[in-house]
Write a structure and sequence with these properties.
The complex is a heterotrimer of chains A (about 600), B (about 140) and C (about 500). By secondary structure, chain A is mainly alpha-helical. Chain A has a domain of about 100 residues. In chain A, helix 12 runs antiparallel to helix 14 and helix 16 packs across helix 18. The longest helix of chain A has about 40 residues. The N and C termini of chain A lie far apart (about 65 Å). In chain A, about 50% of the residues are buried. Chain B is an all-alpha fold. In chain B, about 75% of the residues lie in helices and about 0% in strands. Chain B has five helices and no strands. In chain B, helix 1 runs antiparallel to helix 2, helix 2 crosses helix 3 and helix 4 runs antiparallel to helix 5. Chain C has about 500 residues and is mainly α. Chain C has a domain of about 210 residues. A two-stranded antiparallel sheet of chain C has the order 1-2. Chain C is globular, with a radius of gyration of 21 Å. Classes of the chains: A mainly alpha (about 600), B mainly alpha (about 140), C mainly alpha (about 500). Chains in contact: A-C, B-C. Chains A and C meet through helix 5, helix 6, helix 20 and helix 23 of A and helix 6, helix 8, helix 9, helix 12 and helix 16 of C.
Chain lengths: ~600, ~140, ~500
């Protein structure tokens, strides 16, 4: 069997959580996370837990440098977020966050497409449950849309995997060509928030509870980036998709007033950098993308933790209502500023390091390079907006510093961000290709400073432009919701009135037949006229939505109409007639 | 519409019908007929009774309870004979294997007779029930 | 000599005739009799499965008469598999009935209820073990008649009309089956299935054979509730008592499917139905239409029972689709889905019955917040729904995975899309329910109170089955794989 799969620790932990209560549960939860972290540190690259299924090899546990690298940051940040969310009293929250993290580790250590797919789906389901745990109408809807999007993506991925298995006869990850290539790319793209498949992200994350959105900001998209790095390194479309994501995310982020929605769009934008790095596919590119995964997880979870602490104390998450927190919540504010500097790519913070690697790798792709640079200006601008309007500007607000269980993880993550910036080659040892880039060169520094100076200047001279307003920004999800609503309408109205219309029409037709037998041919004409009436009636019914629905609700129970016996009889007769006709024709030929 | 003519004819006919039914049941092993046919005839005699007199006079002779008991007993007797063959080492309904002091053919004949009687009991109750049960008044 | 083939059938029948006798004396005794009979037939099904696995197909000559003169019972792996599924679900349904029936049925109906349900079980078990086409027809009639009566047994408003409607349609079906059987007998002079398979190829160009095939197809199509012959199903399902509905949707319609498989594969043979007359390809399209249309109907329902009923129509479509693809993977998926779907749908109908038992709720919108009241039941509901949607690693996922592989193996990638679309639609309507149950707030005055153990036990067993057989797929596959081998060789 080899070493124990790290996901197992979380799954078993989740199963045991209901046995504990109160303090004991807190200790248990943190203990499990700590255990998995320590266990992970001693994990060697290996393959294990293999068995044969359906004629292919299922490898549950495949740890190589790439998966270990992502695994490290997952368990590290998992430990810190669990500490951060220890104040939550619901058992369900802890159970599902454990399952969620466990399945993300399952994705990362999957050694074949089948295992990968199974954990991929569990990841989506557990995330949706986490969103639903907020238990209000908004989160219900958002979680529903989230899950449907991910199931669609999962389905596309599954078809791709099946086709791949059929054409190559192997379930191993990689070596994709042709149709399965496209399908799997799109399938992963749903989770990696490719434009325009990203709508679930800014939809669901701001509507989840404050701790859940910290969890969500870390695992789902990063698991997808890992999947891209494993199966699609060096695909040009992917690289450009990264550029588009970076620009699109940042543009929409600038327009937001909901703090967590702004951060959510920034996830898309930052994931764009990682996708670009992976898509470029050189050793430096992949390493850059992946170290950006690591750094991004740190500062983005820190940002969500900060805004979570603010929501915890003030109950507000709208930039139009926030401000004046620097005095009231100093630790949170400082942590937030550190995170904002990191995400904006300011030298001496970790975001700068990994972004520099991605830029360096993208140097040969002019368009992509400038897309990423432009996005970084936008990032800087929107974080000026975020910190200024959210924390620094003068405003009266009721608040006090967050509790220790929240501030401690924030301080730890913040110091990791700074550490990553001060020692840029800290990650070099565990990166898959161990590339080291001298990031603090004069050229790079001046380049960055110049861009950021421009950004600061824009922000301070045009501050009026950035004042957050309450407004709805339409994204692609408008189209999706419209389309889905249309489909539901289609099922509820035309389809069901088709069913009832079919019933009554057949009943009428049957009556015409009876009429022909009994009376003169004139009756047939009369019957036909009646039938036409039916048709127009059915059309009218189809257009009248509410009436139809009420009718369905009332005719639900009991009143079974005997008409449909006629229809069934008629159908059977029709089929027989067709069969006889077929026989006759065949016989004549 | 029950006139004296009908009643008289029915009174004369019913015993003969039943006797004929039993004859057919008992002669099942050696001539055309058997449990089913005979049972139906006996059951039909009860229906004739109910039609020519009234429901209650038929009910008096074959009450709901009696019909249920006959119905179940007949079916269980049939299954029992089948299972008896299993007990003595044959397959289901393999009569010849039952150890009786007779020739196998005779054992077979005897068992077919028994099975016929079982089916006859079952069917006569059933046939009567089909009519009587539907005609009975229900409290629903 | 192993007598399990006859014992598995005869036990429920003996129970069925014992219970009215005992019911005259003490009505309460019917329940233990029914449970004992169902338990015994489950035991014999296990023995049957065991001996089929070790020694291959069992042929049992009733009365010691050699076929084609005598009646032959043939138990191949498929029959054993069906036997296990039927007797398992039936046992659980009978156990479940205890409290439900006491509350939901009028007084004095208990005896007839248990008698009828045992007749239903016996009839279905008979259909799957018999090797004789005419026997198959008779036993189909037996379980159908029991089914009509069970639909009407509650005596509530609409139950008679519903039952009558079911009766009319299903009788059309059985008459067509009889016609088809008669045609085959006219031309070949035999009714034994194996014998028919041997003699039929000589008459492949005869119109009578085509006619027989068409009659049998439509007849069993009605029994299986394939679109557009499904119209009897939702009405009957939503009227019958919940344990009966669970048996209906879990196994009764599957028995129709089983008969379809027997007719197509055992009697007519793979070559005839795919090459000479393209029945199997046509059936795949019918099944695909069933899956899609039934899913769309299910979306538009507001009553829980009707929604589940339409969803189970869709799942019968999966079974037929898989089998009609006539490739190894597809048939494996289709037959496996019989079992997996029986677990899931049985559990769902039990849960819906539990909701009716506890609160009387039938509408989906009223389910809001029940998750806090009967949490175990609702958790089971969720598991079973996940299996029906096909979320890995549930049992439903495995069979859908096989089905998709089968569709690709047959080169019909369009069916993969159909399966995916239908799964998405089912995700939509099941998620809506689960959402309301667990996260939809709380508006009931009921206090937290689980079901009686006799109802909870079957629910939990089936829900666990949905999870366990998603991971340990090998257990049902032990029977399914040889079943597919036997079918595709013929």
């Amino acid at each position: 069997m080899g070493a124990i799969h790290p996901a197992v620790i979380f799954f078993v932990g989740a199963a045991l959580i209901p046995l504990f209560k109160g303090k004991a549960r807190s200790i248990f939860v943190v203990g499990v996370a700590l255990a998995s972290f320590i266990y992970m540190l001693f994990l060697e690259p290996q393959k294990g837990w293999e068995f044969s299924f359906l004629g292919f090899n299922v490898v549950l546990f495949n740890a190589d440098r790439l998966s270990l690298f992502v695994g490290y940051i997952f368990v590290l940040i998992g430990l810190l977020i669990i500490l951060y969310s220890i104040h939550v009293k619901e058992n369900e929250h802890h159970i599902f966050s454990f399952l969620y993290m466990g399945s993300s580790l399952g994705v990362v250590f999957a050694g074949d497409f089948f295992t990968f797919f199974i954990f991929w789906e569990i990841l989506a389901v557990t995330a949706a449950v986490l969103i639903w745990l907020k238990r209000d109408e908004r989160s219900l809807g958002a979680g529903f849309r989230y899950l449907i999007m991910h199931l669609i993506g999962g389905g596309i991925l599954l078809i791709g995997i099946l086709l791949h298995f059929f054409t190559t006869g192997s379930m191993e990850i990689g070596g994709l060509t042709g149709v399965p290539f496209a399908l799997i790319l799109v399938g992963i793209g749903f989770k990696a928030a490719f434009i325009p498949l990203h709508t679930w992200l800014p939809d669901a994350y701001p509507k989840a509870s404050l701790t859940v959105s910290v969890f969500l900001s870390v695992f789902t998209t990063k698991a997808a980036v890992y999947a891209l790095a494993r199966s699609f390194p060096g695909i040009e479309i992917v690289a450009y998709m990264g550029g588009v994501m970076a620009l699109y995310g940042v543009t929409l982020a600038l327009l937001q007033h909901d703090a967590r929605k702004l951060l959510s769009y920034h996830i898309i934008s930052q994931v764009g950098y990682m996708v670009a790095g992976v898509g470029i596919g050189t050793q430096l590119g992949i390493d850059g993308g992946l170290s950006h995964v690591w750094n991004h997880i740190l500062y983005k979870s820190l940002l969500f933790m900060c805004i979570g602490a603010v929501i915890y104390r003030t109950g507000k998450d709208d930039l139009t209502e926030l401000g004046g927190l620097a005095r009231k919540m100093p630790v949170t504010t400082i942590a937030c500023i550190i995170a904002a500097l990191s995400i904006s790519g300011v030298p001496l913070f970790n975001g700068f390091v990994s972004k520099a690697m991605v830029y360096e790798a993208a140097d040969y792709h002019d368009v992509l390079y400038w897309m990423l640079k432009l996005a970084s200006v936008g990032t800087f601008l929107s974080f000026c907006k975020f910190t200024y309007f959210g924390f620094l500007r003068k405003k009266e607000i009721e608040a006090k510093e967050a509790p220790l269980t929240m501030t401690i993880p924030m301080i730890i993550v913040a110091s990791l961000c700074v550490l990553g910036g001060l020692y840029p080659n800290l990650l070099g040892n565990i990166l898959p290709y161990q590339s080291e880039l001298p990031v603090y060169t004069l050229g790079k520094l001046t380049d960055t400073m110049l861009l950021q100076g421009v950004a600061i200047a824009i922000f301070f001279f045009g501050r009026q432009l950035f004042i957050p307003h309450r407004r709805e920004i339409l994204d692609f999800d408008y189209i999706y919701i419209r389309a889905a609503g249309g489909f539901m309408w289609f099922c509820r109205n035309p389809v069901s009135s088709l069913a009832s219309g079919m019933d009554s029409m057949f009943a009428h037709l049957a009556r015409i037949f009876v009429g022909t037998a009994r009376h003169s041919p004139l009756r047939v004409l009369e019957g036909l006229a009646g039938w036409m009436d039916r048709l127009s009636l059915a059309a009218e019914e189809a257009s009248n939505r509410r009436v139809q629905r009420e009718k369905m609700a009332t005719s639900e129970q009991g009143n079974v109409d005997v008409k449909s016996i006629d229809s069934a009889l008629f159908l059977v007769a029709l089929m027989l007639a067709m069969f006889l006709l077929y026989l006759a024709v065949k016989h004549l030929l | 519409m029950t006139t004296i003519v009908i009643k008289t004819i029915a009174r004369v006919l019913v015993p003969f019908l039943q006797l004929f039914g039993f004859y057919i049941i008992v002669h099942g092993p050696v001539s055309p007929g058997g449990g089913f046919q005979g049972g139906v005839i006996v059951g039909a005699s009860m229906i004739l009774l109910a039609l020519s007199y009234d429901l209650s006079s038929a009910e008096d002779r074959a009450s709901h309870k009696v019909r249920i008991i006959m119905d179940s007993t007949g079916a269980l007797l049939f299954a029992g004979i089948g299972l008896l063959c299993l007990l003595v080492g044959g397959v289901f309904l393999e009569y010849g294997i039952i150890p009786l002091p007779m020739a196998p053919a005779e054992v077979r004949g005897l068992m077919i007779l028994l099975v016929g009687v079982a089916i006859g009991i079952h069917i006569m109750a059933l046939a009567a029930s089909l009519f009587l049960h539907l005609a009975e008044e229900h409290d629903t | 000599m192993d007598h399990s083939p006859i014992l598995v059938v005869i036990t429920p029948f003996v129970g069925a005739y014992l219970s009215p006798l005992l019911g005259l004396w003490r009505e309460r005794l019917c329940y233990p009799v029914a449970v004992a009979a169902a338990l015994l037939s489950l035991f014999f099904s296990f023995r049957l499965a065991g001996s089929v696995l070790t020694s291959g197909t069992i042929r049992y000559w009733v009365g010691g008469w050699e076929p084609p003169w005598g009646i032959e019972l043939v138990v191949d792996p498929l029959s054993a598999f069906m036997c296990l599924t039927i007797s398992l679900v039936s046992l659980l349904a009978v156990i479940y009935s205890k409290n439900f029936i006491e509350k939901e049925l009028p007084r004095g109906k208990m005896t007839s209820y248990y008698t009828l349900i045992l007749l239903l079980i016996g009839g279905m078990l008979g259909v799957v073990v018999t090797g004789d086409l005419f026997n198959l027809f008779v036993l189909t009639e037996i379980f159908s008649v029991a089914a009509y009566a069970l639909v009407a047994i509650s005596g509530k408003r609409g139950s008679f009309i519903g039952s009558y409607r079911y009766l009319i349609l299903a009788s059309i079906g059985t008459s067509l089956i009889l016609l088809g059987t008669g045609y085959l007998y006219i031309i070949t002079g035999t009714l034994n299935m194996a014998d028919l398979a041997v003699r039929l190829p000589a008459f492949y160009d005869s119109w009578v054979v085509f006619g027989a095939l068409a009659f049998l197809l439509i007849g069993f199509g009605i029994k299986t509730a394939l679109f557009p012959l499904h119209t009897w199903l939702p009405g009957a399902y939503s009227i019958a008592p919940a344990p009966v509905t669970a048996i209906f949707s879990a196994v009764v319609s599957k028995v129709g499917g089983y008969s379809l498989i027997r007719v197509l594969f055992t009697i007519f043979g793979l070559e005839f139905i795919t090459d000479l007359v393209p029945v199997a390809p046509a059936l795949t399209w019918v099944a695909a239409a069933t899956i899609l249309v039934a899913s769309m109907f299910a979306i538009s329902q507001t009553s829980l029972m009707r929604m589940l009923a339409y969803s189970s129509v869709a799942h019968i479509g999966y079974v037929v689709l898989g089998v009609a693809l006539a490739v190894e993977m597809g048939m494996t998926g289709g037959i496996l889905h019989i079992f997996n779907h029986a677990l899931a749908t049985g559990c769902l109908f039990f849960c819906a019955g539990a909701v009716i038992y506890k609160t009387g709720i039938r509408h989906i919108d009223d389910l809001r917040g029940l998750g806090g009241k009967i949490p175990l039941t609702m958790a089971a509901f969720t598991l079973a729904a996940a299996s029906k949607v096909g979320i890995p690693p549930s049992a439903g996922f495995v069979s859908k995975f096989y089905l998709s592989l089968g569709a690709l193996e047959a080169g019909e990638w369009i069916f993969v899309i159909v399966i995916l679309l239908a799964s998405l639609m089912s995700a939509v309507f099941y998620l809506r329910v689960i959402n309301l149950i667990f996260f939809g707030g709380d508006k009931h005055e009921v206090r937290r109170d689980e079901l009686p153990l006799s109802m909870l036990f079957p629910i939990i067993i089936l829900a666990l089955g949905c999870a366990v057989f998603g991971i340990f797929v090998g257990i049902p596959l032990q029977l399914v794989e040889p079943a597919v081998m036997v079918l595709s060789e013929l």
